[in-house]
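Q: I'm writing up a methods section and want to include an example of the input and output format. Could you take the sequence below and give the corresponding predicted structure tokens, formatted cleanly so I can copy it straight into the document?
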Amino acid sequence: QVQLVESGGGLVQAGGSLRLSCAASGRTFGSAAMGWFRQAPGKERDFVAVISWSGGSTYYANSVKGRFTISRDNAKNTVYLQMNSLKPEDTAVYYCAAAWAAWTRATMTSPSGFNSWGQGAQVTVSS
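A: Here is the clean output for your methods example:
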């Protein structure tokens, strides 16, 4: 297991950019797929993006494809989410998560496929 801590959230105007970081502690970070999810008030936690343990494979939700980029630096035990062209509907608490399950689209896009979670970072996009 790993401990995950998100940072980089905040308030930004529509069209702006933010970069979220997720710092991990624990020796198993390098073997984990890392994902980002988000949850708006009164809504379910939704998949945003995922990256394989090597960084060689990524997958995005349609709603963020072309605007968000997930990356990782295993030497720094950190995963990032670069968010560009932000929209008010991107407003949510963003969570990073780690998974050691088999890499399939079903497991890597569902919260149930992930084992460890951060505490979340608020992202607010004003219109």
